[in-house]
Structures are given as C-alpha cells and as structure tokens.
Amino acid sequence: MNNINKSDISLKLMPKVKHEHINKNYFKLFKIKNGRQIKMVNFICGKKGSGKTKRLISMANDDVNNINGCIVFIEANKRHTLDLKHKIRYISAMDFDITSINSFHGFLCGIIATDYDIQKVYIDGLYKIVELDFYLLEKFIKNLEKIIEKSDVEFIISMECINEDVPEEMKKYLIK
Predict the structure, then answer these.
(1) CA pair distance 171, 165, nearest whole angstrom
(2) For residue 172, how many other CB atoms are within 10 A of its CB?
(3) How far is CA 156 from the centre of its chain?
(4) What is Dmax (Cα atoms) for the chain?
(5) CA dihedral angle for residue 123, residue 126, residue 130, residue 135, rounded to 10 degrees
(6) Parallel, antiparallel or unpaired: strands 118-124 and 89-92
(7) Are 44 and 52 in contact (CB under 8 A)?
(8) Which domains does the chain have, with CATH numbers?
(9) Looking at residue 2, what is its pLDDT?
(10) Whether 42 contacts 175, CB under 8 Å
(11) Phi, psi torsion values for 56, nearest 5 degrees
(12) Ranges of the chain with pLDDT below 70
C-alpha cells in the first residue's frame, strides 16, 4: 500500500485527503466524470417569462440521450408533463405534502433512495415548491451536498430571481 503513486489515486478518494491548496468544499461542488469536471449543484435564474423552464426541459430532454442513468424532473404543477421525453421520471411536487425545506430534502432523499440509477434531478420553480429566502437556500444547498456525497446525483434547479440578487458566495452555482 505504501508504494502507491499519488497520481494513481482516484479523484473520488481525494476529499478524504487534506490538500492545503484546495478549498475543502471543492469536491462537494464538483466531481470528475469521464475526465470532465462537473458542477453538481446548478441554478438557472431569471425573471418570470425569461425561458428558465424551457431551458430546463430542453436540458433534460437532451440528457436522455447522453447519460446512462435516470433523470427526474420535479415541478410545482403539472404543466409540462407532455413536454418531457417519456424516459424522464416526472414528479409534480404539489401532489405531496411539502411544507418546508426540510420536508423537500426528505422528499428528494426518498426519490433517490428508491432508484440508485438516478444521475440527474431537474427542479423547476424551487420557490413555487417551497418558500425560502437566500439564507434557507444556502441551507438547502448544504442538504444537497449531503445527498451528492452519498449518491453522486447532479441537481439542476431553476428559480425566479435575477443573477444580481444572488449573494456573492452563491454565484458559483449559477449557470450562465
């Protein structure tokens, strides 16, 4: 075991190794897949009617052909059921009693626990599903990071706000 070259260690093992030059949260936010760095929590922000949902649907439909795992699409209502390809698991969050950020976290854990092949979760209209401010959003992201550590699921989330309103420490999650 002592003869192992550091370059032979998989990047997935690196979070357990202390690196002084790397932010400790780096590996929670990013994973290496197929030689590419993937951001595991992503937000699409914009004003109402700016095309966030269309973009999210397009991304999910494109991913059906590009990934091996399953895709889940969650939204607050049942407006876009027919816009998604049939291979995408569609869930209307309002069919469940989601009353807080904690119940939504439990809801996501339950979805992922029932299907270990889930690779991506798209959440449309986070503020329509759960009432939250930027403080609770930060707590929600920390909850997502806990899920990512255990399940390797990527989250793409749309919410109604403009990029300028997002606190500086959270801008790293934005998709341009």
Answers:
(1) 10
(2) 14
(3) 4
(4) 58
(5) 120
(6) unpaired
(7) yes
(8) 37-173 (3.40.50.300)
(9) 44
(10) yes
(11) -65, -45
(12) 1-39
DSSP state of 174: B
Tokens of 82: 């027919």
Containing 107, the helix (H) or strand (E) segment is: helix 101-114
Angle at alpha carbon of residue 164, lines to 159 and 168, rounded to 5°: 95
Token pair in block for residue 154 = 């990527």
Asked if 72 contacts 118 with a C-beta cutoff of 8 angstroms, the reply is yes
Whole-prediction pTM: 0.77
pLDDT at 7: 38
Reported as type and span, the H/E element at residue 30 is: strand 30-33
Distances (CA, A) of 16 to 36, 118, 129: 20, 24, 35
C-alpha to C-alpha distance for 163 and 4, rounded to whole angstroms:
45
Contact present, 138 and 170 (Cβ < 8 Å): yes
pLDDT of residue 116: 86
Q: What is the identity of the amino acid at 16?
A: K
CA distance 37 to 13: 15
What six digits make up the tokens of 141? 């992201």
Q: Report which secondary-structure segment, H or E, holds 129.
A: helix 126-129
Q: Are 43 and 158 in contact (CB under 8 A)?
A: yes
